[in-house]
Design goal:
Largest sheet: 8 strands, mixed
Number of domains: 2
Number of strands: 26
Shape: globular
Number of helices: 10
CATH architecture of the largest domain: Alpha-Beta Complex
Helix content: 10-25%
Distance between the termini: 51 Å
Bound molecules: calcium ion
Structural class: alpha+beta
Amino acid sequence: MKIKANDPKLSTWVEIPENSDFPIQNLPFGIFKTDYLAPGAGVRIGDLVLDLTYMYENGYFDGLELPAGIFNQAYLNDFMALGKAKTREVRNRISELLSAENDELRDNFAVRELSMIPMDEVEMLIPVRVPNYTDFYSSEDHARNVGTMFRDPKNALMPNWKHLPVAYHGRASSIVVSGTDFHRPKGQTKADDAEMPSFGPCRLLDFELEMAFITCKENPMGTSVSAKEAADYIFGFVILNDWSARDIQKWEYVPLGPFLAKNFASHISPWIVTMDALEPFKVAGPKQNPAVLPYLKTEGSLHYDVKLEVQIKPEKAEPTVVSNSNFKYMYWNVNQQVAHHTSNGCNLQVGDLYGSGTISGPKPEEFGSMLEITWRGEKPVKMKDGSERKFIQDGDTVIMSGHAVKDGVRIGFGEVLAKVLPAN
Ligand code: CA
């Protein structure tokens, strides 16, 4: 499918800073507010936000038959629920308005002044109301690293791992947007040599570098979505930091899996980069061997070449890069994740968040968590300020970013960052 707004030859009259994640080929959607504007939908271009409520109210979307008030809302759920065809039309129309040869906005300085707001004047809010959160475990290198550390290098992957995309149901209430500081969690842990467990601040706080997709369509309970149909259900992607308390996790996870070690905070980047915008950056995934069951079979390139980076910024020091990974390292693709998730008749809802699982690459510098980077704390990371990190300390800000490059076009997600405050 050819998507007009993705054309690498498109240029815009808007000034785009060098190496920006937000050229005219991206146009991600988010929710913003300002000192004078209530929360509403916007699209990012360069370092500006295009106010979609203003554009709608002034007739720039006439002819698209959008419901009244569709952008004048605190969440994108209703907009996304219009479906891929309609939201694609909106993105194409925005692309048209911002393209170099179109004068509708370009030459109307009064409208530009009112509809395009500098990023430093806006506050980004969580873009969707998240009804459900599922976290997959779809990176083979991550699963192997963890299996090697905690079980047996020879049987690092559980017997089911290459037959189904393993996942668990997470907590939606504590999913927050980038920039939301949070307190170190407290919990019950038990040291190997201790007789009894104890309660206190988590000592092994970790990040998990993930991508997540957000759904825009519901399947009725009792029905399944095929891997082929999955793209109709996925609106777009964000970067996800799925914070994890390793010491709490180690003691609590048997036999039902993660609980309090994972549900205290998960941060997402504020701009939803549409699945459409990522279309040109699709690449083939790894060959799946053994062959998967028929309902999980997919064809073509369904992985995404998105470069990912993690930095740790100590309280009063420069950030240090601790990981460079790539979304393409997934074993399972998102179409398979949707097909598997609904194979039993489970109903997806609009706004659901589906995490990839920690994205680790084959090399140590590509590992997506401190657990792996420092190998359970055995190999601390040297920071630029001379300090060392085994896990994340109070006052640290973890910054994740991601972008894709092809044919001279770079599109990206901006950042998801969060600062760890001392335990309450
Ligand atoms: Ca995770």
